[in-house]
Amino acid sequence: MRRRKRKQAQAGDYSRKHCTNGGRPVSETPHLTFDIDQPGMSKGHLVVPKGADCEALPLPVFSLNKGEGPRLLITGGCHGNELEGPIVARRLIDWLPEAQTCGRVIVVPVLNPPAVQAWSRNTVVDGLNLNRVFPGRADGSVTERIADAVSRLLLPMADIVFDLHSFGPNWDLPPSSTTHPIADADLMAKTVRMAEAFKFPMTLVWEHHDTSGMFDMLAHSQGKVFVCAELGGGTVGSEALAIYEVGVHNALIALGLVEGKAERPAFRQHKSNQTLETRSSDELKSPARGIFEPRCSVLDEVKQGDLIGILHPMDSLSANSIDLRASTTSIVCAIRSGAHVDVNEVVALLARPQSLKIYGG
Amino acid sequence: MRRRKRKQAQAGDYSRKHCTNGGRPVSETPHLTFDIDQPGMSKGHLVVPKGADCEALPLPVFSLNKGEGPRLLITGGCHGNELEGPIVARRLIDWLPEAQTCGRVIVVPVLNPPAVQAWSRNTVVDGLNLNRVFPGRADGSVTERIADAVSRLLLPMADIVFDLHSFGPNWDLPPSSTTHPIADADLMAKTVRMAEAFKFPMTLVWEHHDTSGMFDMLAHSQGKVFVCAELGGGTVGSEALAIYEVGVHNALIALGLVEGKAERPAFRQHKSNQTLETRSSDELKSPARGIFEPRCSVLDEVKQGDLIGILHPMDSLSANSIDLRASTTSIVCAIRSGAHVDVNEVVALLARPQSLKIYGG
Predict the structure, then answer these.
(1) What per-residue confidence (pLDDT) applies to A209?
(2) Counting beta carbons within 10 angstroms of the beta carbon of residue A93, is it exposed (0 to 12), middle (13 to 18) or buried (19 or more)?
(3) What count of Cα atoms within 13 Å lies in the side-chain half-sphere of residue B327?
(4) A209 vs chain B: nearest CA distance in angstroms?
(5) CA distance B304 to chain A (A)
(6) In terms of Cα–Cα distance, which of A255, A274, A256 is closest to A264?
(7) Which cofactor does it need (chains A, B) (predicted)?
């Protein structure tokens, strides 16, 4: 496409001069600009203090306090190229004041404004992934200071956390609620039940090894129920957003925060939902460098030998394309969009029905 | 999503050390490594000479020479985050040898390997947009040298060009064949007819002002028929790729290069196709800075006042979201995926049925 403006050209926008605190006096510790404990609805900012790399950063915060009941924190915009979360969070703020009957809900639509503005997974200023630096550091770089502010001021106010992610622009994934395996069996069972309450097409128990510094690891270590909603991948479109909003509504009903009847949203041709698990060994990796062509769709059931995708070497047209096939009966839970990949880069995640015995769910 | 590898971390891969010519002797002028005029199928490389910024760059080239008939050049991978083109081109190379009955087809699946490998619209090495530097410069930076090599060695071998683009990851668009308005009425009519032969859901005559240095401008100035296929946007998935391949096959049938009966591919719920035109004044721009939420889908017909999308200011939750509405009866031909946008950034392209009188099509 011929585009006049380039988002990437703006990647440096969040330089020192743009990270302001709106003229408010600079504080050296993270703080809220409003009384979040007041009854009813309130709005303001969580101010992440300035540091060597950036001025103070105000994160917009919404709070709706209706007394006794579940204490829920909803966050979006951890990764700047996963914008389903901020949009669904922003919609939620419109209808929650009419709908919420008890408890407390705090919503932070955008945890990482510099990344969102740059349409970048990581923070542009320091190159860090916010979801790998929890609990953060008060004297660290801006990403670490965001994590520190959230960990210290907002997380203690919640017993349950919904962190609204997506698979970003270069994967396809059905709308899903996910959790990592948790050593504490009771917390694991509670978390899986909470995840299933979204009634998304897929609930996924996802084992992988790169979990150090993740927000959910911190929350789980404090005994909190933390569900990561992975709201699809690819284009952020109106149809998918409608599904996501239904899922969040379902989860709020399950918590008793709002009244209503849960709906099971349809996704493409799939009307059922299922709880799956995937392990590191279920990752399908590219056997060579080249362009990956997806040849199946998410939620497809595949048998041993079925075609998942094709790897096209692109350095020479004399090199044959390579078929990538399923090694066992599986369900395709995520597949890479057409992209240039390196050898051993993950191009699909396969899964199987969750073993109920493990988690008592 | 938790991804272990970051494409952006690889953006610098195409440094001097990676731009090699595979051990072949370096030449100071662009050249082909094989005899492209030989009858039948041949494969090799178009070597873009080394420069101050990069070693020589070999672009894989496929040629199928069946004597008299149309002379067609098909190119993909001009922009590195539009990978539908390279995949469809690569598939074409598999079936064309069996199917082509006359004429000559040259296929270059990836015009800009450094951009494709970095999943970047522009070339990483020099930051340039390949589709803004034609006809290029022999002594320029690597993007300009690619344009120069293609303009001097490949373009003269073709009377017709299909350049396979897409709208990239952060727009939605139906599979389309497009052309800019052309001053030469005969060439315009021929080009629109060629574009319509793809039988995509949309044929689009697209007026905009930022056309200097575009590949089609160069080809049109030489009297060639040049169609830009804009193969959708967002996730590169298997269903969309199937539509794209049908469209290219239809166009080859129309040229008489292959035999067969054209099909009209269905796209989502739309089974018709239409020829539309859009002008600069049809661009819908964001009235403020914030996250754009699409609220309609491509090919939707909208009337004056219908909701196109919502702009959510994100710096403060006290600022109201802003509805963006259609100013007149239109068809939505492209809509921005959910993304952070600046004030006056384009978020949708509206269109109307093409005025047949203008182009005699």
Answers:
(1) 80
(2) buried
(3) 9
(4) 10
(5) 20
(6) A274
(7) Zn(2+)
Runs of H (alpha helix) within chain A = 84-99, 113-117, 142-149, 185-196, 215-221, 238-254, 356-359
CA B138, distance to chain mean position in Å, is 24
Query: In this model, does residue A227 exceed pLDDT 90?
Result: yes
Strands, DSSP E only, in chain B?
A: 31-32, 40-48, 57-66, 71-76, 103-108, 160-165, 171-172, 175-179, 202-206, 225-231, 274-278, 283-285, 290-294, 301-302, 307-312, 322-325, 330-336, 339-341, 346-353
Residue ranges in chain B modelled with pLDDT below 70 = 1-27, 271, 356-361
Contact B154, B107 (CB under 8 A): no
Q: Does A33 touch chain B (CB under 8 A)?
A: no
Sketch out chain B's domains with CATH numbers. 2-276 (3.40.630.10), 281-359 (2.40.50.100)
Q: What is the pLDDT of residue A327?
A: 93
* ipTM of the complex, rounded to two decimals: 0.86
Give me the mean pLDDT over the A197-208 stretch: 93
Asked if the C-beta of B232 comes within 8 angstroms of chain A's C-beta atoms, the answer is no
Q: Write down the H helix ranges in B201-319.
A: 215-221, 238-255
Q: Is A120 on the interface with B (CB under 8 A)?
A: yes
Segment A235-251 mean pLDDT: 90
| Closest residue of chain B to A335, computed from CA coordinates | B237
Please tell me the total number of residues recorded for chain A in this structure. 361
Q: Kindly determine whether residue A169 and residue B235, on different chains, have CB atoms separated by under 8 Å.
A: yes
